[in-house]
Design brief:
The complex is a heterodimer of chains A (696) and B (282).
Chain A: E1 2-9, H1 14-34, E2 39-47, E3 50-57, E4 64-72, H2 73-76, H3 85-94, E5 102-106, E6 109-118, H4 123-136, E7 157-164, E8 167-168, E9 172-173, E10 176-177, E11 181-183, E12 192-194, H5 198-207, H6 214-229, E13 235-236, H7 240-249, E14 253-259, H8 269-277, E15 283-287, E16 290-300, H9 308-331, H10 336-339, E17 347-349, E18 353-354, H11 355-373, H12 378-387, H13 395-399, H14 406-414, H15 419-427, H16 442-461, H17 475-489, H18 495-506, H19 514-535, H20 540-547, H21 554-567, H22 573-587, H23 603-625, H24 628-635, H25 638-648, H26 656-674
Antiparallel strand pairs in A: 1-3, 1-7, 2-3, 4-6, 5-6, 7-8, 9-10, 11-12, 13-15, 14-16, 15-16, 17-18
Helix pairs in contact in A: 1-4, 6-7, 8-9, 11-12, 11-16, 11-18, 12-15, 12-16, 14-15, 15-16, 16-17, 16-18, 16-19, 17-19, 18-19, 19-20, 20-21, 21-24, 22-26, 23-24, 23-25, 23-26
Chain B: H1 3-16, E1 20-21, H2 36-39, E2 48-57, E3 73-82, H3 88-98, E4 108-112, E5 115-117, E6 122-131, E7 134-145, E8 148-149, E9 155-160, H4 161-169, H5 185-203, H6 206-225, H7 229-248, H8 254-275
Parallel strand pairs in B: 1-2
Antiparallel strand pairs in B: 2-3, 3-9, 4-6, 5-6, 6-7, 7-8, 7-9
The chains are: A alpha+beta (696), B alpha+beta (282).
């Protein structure tokens, strides 16, 4: 039978809608499952004012038969088989006819009992209780109260529509009794709308200028954009995030096509796009990757017959572009190097000082990274570091903060600074996310690493924590950016030594000790790498194994997991893992022991020792280079020798010296293996291990 | 419709909603929220409805009268309804219709925007209201003020009068607005914008402003101790304005900024606590 739920609210932010729909679907499914109501289908939809669930549910619970047991038969019945006082009392208390009673055999003996036919509860009753629970437990990124209600929610609530099988469900939420009524579009058709099932609801709302399905609204937007741009043979500059937000910002989309004076095309594309998108949420229009003097907006309206919406948006955009051009002209009058002096008055973080302090550190950190990675760009990287934050003081970035970095790069180019320098400045906030591109230039990559690592080490060093969804300093994004740059460019540098260098640059500013900061950074990055590698599709246990040897080289984490992944289907892999685990199990908890070749007794242990020396001297250089696949291939050679060793040699020998010597031999093997991966983390056939929690 | 007709219309409309029409407050403030008619009255359980025009001073926004949209002093029409009425969005929409905007021909949007003022320990949740892409109002469910959770929750509606009037007159330049049939915004305000921009950015004496900040701060603390909370709050407003001027003069360093804001907030929170009957240190 059909189920329809709508919570009518004041305008919800797009991010809140997305999160609410997930919670509503999960919550309803969980409630229905627990109540044994079959779900044939269940979907969620939304507009900025409505959270909607619709589906096809069983009419009620299946009828059930349950066994009710009473007193032991010996008490309930007399020797004559007739019911005793106790037996009659049981029947009376349960409200059953004595004829329905029967003997029930249990593990503890025979009891008096009966079978009760329980009628299934109707779904409407289940929903009446479940719906308020699901809605009441919704949580949002930012919650508010209103009027005199104690409830915390995203925005104030205005009504509840809840019908099942064409009948109103007797639910109520926060003082709203469910009905079969809602309202239409706030401006175009604000009157009441009645609906007893989803098809009627959707049709009635459409008549009242509300398109309830976001997928329909998205299609309408795209079709209208196409229609507007077809004569121009132009395209809207693709911006999925903007399109998705706009889809959730309107109940009835109307694409508005407008123009701005061609003179503004002299502004950089970055500036034009940002001026259009930020605040006004407009799409840019391009042809052959060149900006045209047009824009597309999405209004929540039915028609723009008089062109007022278009003209209004044109006027607002003109004012913004006039501002932008003013900023562009003014900002270029002061060279970045002069502007950078003002960074002492811009706060980076309360405990970490100003952006001038940060700039001084960045020069040192970027210089250090160049020494390790690309000495040829050191001069450019250090110059870029000294200028990269100066654009925070430009009027353009004060107005459009999203242009930070890129604006500095553009101004540096206008000043005639070398390409290495202005490109590095332009790219140094990249990548903003895992989907974003890493800096294209090596100098940009180095500056990006320096900037992000400085922020992370500083924040960790003064005790700023990332917890759950709260990450005010953007540490998670920064760490993922670092990992992405390192992995994309396969950069080899010692991660702990870089942290040391950064700690030195901070001097005595940080509150946590050196070891503490390093440990926290290690754990934090291990967690981020696990997230990135699992996202790339690597098996979680292989990822754990790859992270086991630690993070001296970030880039090795991926190289290790790639090697394990490549070899995981080789016939040698599984026996090798089992062997490695066997060694680990033997050594578990034992203190370190030394190997002395003179103490070997059996020929098999001598053989193992000499094979190990050869394998080790071949594999070590490969491990050091990060060529784990080949190193692993060489390690497989230990397998037959180890097999024979375990067959013929008793490790736990009676004689203590012999035993210690053999354990020492196994320890040197384990140590070499740990140079590649922590094999004990890998799950092989026939083993079942619980998935470990992310982030250690 | 001239700007003064818009003001008259808003007065009439909100008086019709049971608002008391307050007079403009006579101490410089950065926003209508900061005047006592909002700050003190949103605290505590007593219902309150008020509407008033408040010039809002933002020294840093001065543009020497050369920018068609930005000024260092603009007008806000401030409305407080406490507790927030259930139909307040509809009432707001009716206010727009009341001065002749045929909303069917336009795009009216409530666009997520949360407001906060660290100086007076206040924040709220709500929207900026956009009309054809132009921000004409801030619409905020006030959650906290002076560091105190508000119950019942008031709603604050702030109309940007010049913005709205530019929309009504379909003009691109603020100085072209008609204040009345005979007087233009240019006549009234251009010279003021030029001179105050000069004052805000170059002429104001940093030494005098620092002295004034410190003196007001000290005075506020002294008055709080004597339980003279309204005069103490005036002193905090003076601190805040002097801070803004020092900022536009570029005279405030990083550490100072944090310190000065928290100095003002400390006093304001103390005032709010005492005003609502709590003792200090609570």
């Amino acid at each position: 039978m059909e189920f329809l739920l709508e919570l009518l609210t004041e305008e919800l932010p797009a991010s809140h809608i997305r999160s609410a729909l997930e919670q509503i679907e999960a919550g309803l499914r969980q409630e229905l499952l627990a109540a044994r109501i079959d779900i044939a289908s269940l979907k969620t939809l939304a507009t900025p004012r409505r959270l909607v669930a619709a589906g096809d549910l069983a009419e009620g619970q299946e009828d059930r038969e349950e066994l009710v047991t009473g007193p032991p038969l010996s008490i309930a019945k007399g020797p004559d088989g007739a019911l005793t006082v106790a037996g009659k009392g049981f029947a009376r208390s349960q409200g059953v006819d004595e004829s329905q009673l029967e003997a029930v055999r249990t593990a503890k003996g025979e009891y008096l009992g009966f079978r009760r036919k329980a009628k299934g509860t109707p779904t409407s009753e289940i929903l009446a209780a479940a719906v308020p629970r699901v809605l009441g437990s919704l949580s949002f990124p930012k919650m508010m109260r209103w009027a005199e209600s104690p409830l915390r929610f995203s925005r104030p609530i205005h009504g509840l529509l809840c019908v099942f099988g064409s009948r109103t469900v007797a639910a109520s939420f926060e003082g709203f009794r469910a009905s079969d009524e809602t309202v239409g579009h706030r401006i175009a058709s604000p009157g009441p709308v009645k609906a007893s099932d989803f098809a009627a609801y959707r049709a009635a709302l459409a008549k009242s200028f509300v398109v309830v399905d976001p997928a329909d609204r998205k299609r309408m937007i795209l079709a209208q954009i196409d229609a507007a741009l077809a004569p121009l043979e132009a395209q809207a500059y693709p911006d999925e995030a903007l399109l998705d937000d706009l889809t959730l910002n309107v109940e009835h989309p109307l694409v508005v096509f407008g123009a701005f004076p061609e003179a503004y095309l002299g502004l950089p594309l970055e500036v034009l796009a940002t001026a259009m998108r930020q605040g006004q949420k407009l799409f840019s229009v391009v042809r052959d990757e060149k900006q045209l003097p047009y824009f597309l907006g999405v209004a929540d309206a039915v028609v723009d017959a008089k062109g007022l919406i278009r003209r209004g948006n044109e006027r607002v955009l003109r004012a913004r572009l006039a501002d932008a051009r003013f900023f562009w002209d003014q900002d270029r009058k002061v060279p970045l190097a002069d502007r950078a002096a003002g960074l002492k008055n811009v706060l980076f973080q309360e405990k970490l000082g100003s952006y001038e302090d940060k700039t001084l550190r960045l020069k040192k950190i970027a210089g250090y990274l160049c020494d390790k990675l690309a000495p040829e760009v050191k001069a450019a990287a250090v110059e870029a570091a000294s200028l990269c934050k100066a654009d925070l003081l430009t009027e353009m970035v004060k107005e459009f903060s999203g242009l930070q970095g890129r604006m500095g790069g553009l101004y540096a180019r206008e000043e005639g600074l070398p390409a290495d320098v202005h490109r590095a400045i332009y790219e140094h906030y990249q990548p903003g996310s895992l989907e974003d591109a890493s800096p294209a230039s090596p100098t940009g990559a180095i500056l990006s690493l320096a900037d992000k690592m400085d922020s992370i080490v500083g924040a960790v060093g003064v005790g700023l924590q990332v917890s759950g969804s709260s990450d005010p300093f953007g540490l998670r994004r920064n760490a993922q950016g670092v990992c992405k740059v390192v992995l994309d460019r396969k950069l080899r540098f010692s991660f702990p030594l870089l942290i040391d260098r950064i700690l030195a640059a901070y001097g005595d500013r940080l509150t946590l000790g050196r070891a503490e900061v390093k440990a926290a950074c290690h754990d934090f990055f291990a967690g981020r790498l696990r997230f990135i590698l699992e996202k790339k599709g690597y098996r979680y246990d292989l990822v754990s194994a790859a992270l086991g040897p630690g993070l001296d080289q970030i880039v090795d984490a991926q190289a290790r997991v790639e090697a394990l992944d490549a070899l995981k289907s080789s016939p040698q892999f599984e026996p090798f893992i089992l062997m490695a685990k066997r060694i680990n199990n033997i050594l578990k908890g034992l203190p370190a022991a030394k190997v002395n070749p003179d103490l070997f007794v059996e020929k098999e242990e001598r053989e193992l020792y000499s094979t190990l020396s050869i394998v080790s001297s071949n594999a070590q250089p490969m491990i050091a280079r990060g060529d784990f696949a080949r190193a692993q291939g060489i390690l497989f050679k230990l397998q037959p020798v180890l097999n024979t060793f375990f067959d013929k040699v008793l490790v736990m020998a009676e004689d203590k010296k012999t035993r210690q010597n053999r354990l020492g031999l196994l320890q040197s093997i384990a140590k070499m293996l740990l140079g590649i991966a922590d094999y004990s983390q890998i799950v092989v056939e026939g083993e079942r291990t619980a998935k470990p929690k992310a982030g250690r | 419709m001239a700007l003064q007709d818009l003001i008259l219309g808003l007065h009439r409309f909100w008086a019709g909603q049971g608002c008391y029409l307050a007079q403009t407050y006579d101490v410089e403030v950065g926003a209508g929220t900061m005047t006592p008619d909002t700050f003190f009255r949103v605290l505590g359980p007593r219902p309150w409805r008020v509407g008033y025009v408040q010039p809002s001073r933002r020294p840093d926004d001065g543009r020497y009268g050369e920018n068609p949209n930005r000024v260092q002093k603009h007008l806000q029409y401030q409305v407080i309804m406490k507790p927030s009425p259930a139909d307040i969005q509809d009432v707001y929409v009716r206010s727009l219709r009341s001065f002749g905007i045929a909303l069917e021909d336009h795009d009216l949007r409530f666009d997520e925007d949360n407001w906060e003022s660290p100086t007076i320990g206040a924040w709220g949740v709500g929207w900026q209201v956009l009309l054809d892409g132009l921000e004409i109002s801030q619409f905020t469910y006030f959650q906290q003020c002076g560091g105190i959770d508000l119950a019942p929750v008031p709603v604050e509606i702030t109309y940007g009068l010049e913005r709205l009037e530019m929309f009504l007159e379909q003009k691109d330049d603020i100085y072209d607005l008609d204040w009345s049939a005979d007087v233009s915004y240019r006549d009234l305000r251009l010279r003021e914008e030029k001179e105050f921009s000069e004052y805000n950015f170059t002429a104001a004496s940093v030494a005098m402003l620092r002295q004034a900040f410190n003196a007001s701060h000290k005075e506020a603390a002294r008055l709080i101790a004597r339980d003279l909370l309204l005069p103490a709050y005036d002193m905090c407003l003076k601190c805040s304005h002097n801070f803004n001027l020092l900022d536009s003069r570029g005279a405030i360093s990083v550490t100072e900024r944090v310190k000065m804001i928290s100095q003002i907030r400390g006093l304001v929170n103390d005032i709010a606590r005492r005003y609502t009957g709590g003792k200090d240190g609570a």
